[in-house]
């Protein structure tokens, strides 16, 4: 345990936001809507069971192990897809919301396991478990961090200032605990629920690359155009490919 604590102390958590930025004015009359659905076609990956008996708290929450469905959805919809505008907003500035994104460690699992935040937006990591967790972020564009949450209701807030999709976050104590975090300089992103649907409103008119990322499936993207007062409808279809198994990462 002493080795772990020493390792946690070696990396700092980015907690101080930059000065407030002035947002580019947005005229609602010149904006439109992007809406659509993320779906999955094909045979989903096999259900996995992860043994968690090394920690009594985890074993009590999951006596038979954690059952992981890598592809989840209803009626063909796909959950846990991070959908976002990847290009087209480079000349605009958006102010981050003051409300934080909250990520819990509950039942020895990150909840949610895919999340998004704006640059400059507070991200609260919280633990609901009666055991030691640590939050080890390994970004490429932001400073890395590694801090412990040793007891129930422990929490820590950090702020990331550089866009990055995706930031892998893990718990060194429980190696099956993995989170993927998308950081963007604008608000046009979401994580799909089981129906796979998404909707972006007040999108400035223009041409964009819409991208969709999933923890177990190859990234998808397509080009679309938004007209003032119009609604652009998008269908994003994920399918398993021979290379998908090679790019899988353990949770």
Keyword list:
Immunoglobulin-like, 4-stranded antiparallel sheet, mainly beta, 251 residues, disordered N terminus
Please outline what is shown here.
The chain has three helices and 18 strands.
Which residue ranges are poorly predicted, with pLDDT under 50 across at least 5 consecutive positions? 1-10, 243-251
Q: Which CATH class applies here? A: Mainly Beta
The percentage helix is under 10%
Q: Going by CATH, what is the homologous superfamily?
A: Cupredoxins -  blue copper proteins
Biggest β-sheet description: 5 strands, mixed
Structural summary, described in words:
Strands 7-13-12-9-10 form a five-stranded mixed beta sheet, with helices on one face. It has a four-stranded antiparallel beta sheet with strand order 14-4-16-17, with no helix packed on it. Strands 6-5-8-11 form a four-stranded mixed beta sheet, with no helix packed on it. The protein is globular. It is built from three helices and 18 strands. The protein has one domain (2-247): Immunoglobulin-like. The protein has 251 residues and is mainly beta.
């Amino acid at each position: 345990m002493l080795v772990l604590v020493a390792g946690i102390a070696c990396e700092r958590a980015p907690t101080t936001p930059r000065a407030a930025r002035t947002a580019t004015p947005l005229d609602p009359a010149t904006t439109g809507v992007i809406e659509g659905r993320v779906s999955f076609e094909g045979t989903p990956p096999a259900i996995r069971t992860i043994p968690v008996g090394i920690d009594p708290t985890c074993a009590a929450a999951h006596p038979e192990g954690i059952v992981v469905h890598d592809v989840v959805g209803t009626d063909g919809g796909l959950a846990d897809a991070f959908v976002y505008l990847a290009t087209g907003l480079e000349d605009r500035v958006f102010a981050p919301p003051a409300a934080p994104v909250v990520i819990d460690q509950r039942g020895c699992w990150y909840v949610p396991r895919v999340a998004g935040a704006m640059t400059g937006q507070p991200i609260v990591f919280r633990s609901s478990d009666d055991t030691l967790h640590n939050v080890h972020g390994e970004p490429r564009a932001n400073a890395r961090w590694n801090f412990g949450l040793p007891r129930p209701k422990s929490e820590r807030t950090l702020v990331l200032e550089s866009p990055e999709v995706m930031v892998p976050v893990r718990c060194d104590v429980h190696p099956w605990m993995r989170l993927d975090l998308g950081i963007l300089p604008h608000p046009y992103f979401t994580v799909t629920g089981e129906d796979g649907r998404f909707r972006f409103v007040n999108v400035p008119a223009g041409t964009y690359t819409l991208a969709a990322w999933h923890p177990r499936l190859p990234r998808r993207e397509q080009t679309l155009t938004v007209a003032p007062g119009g609604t652009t409808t998008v269908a994003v279809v994920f399918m398993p490919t021979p290379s998908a198994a090679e790019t899988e990462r353990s949770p």
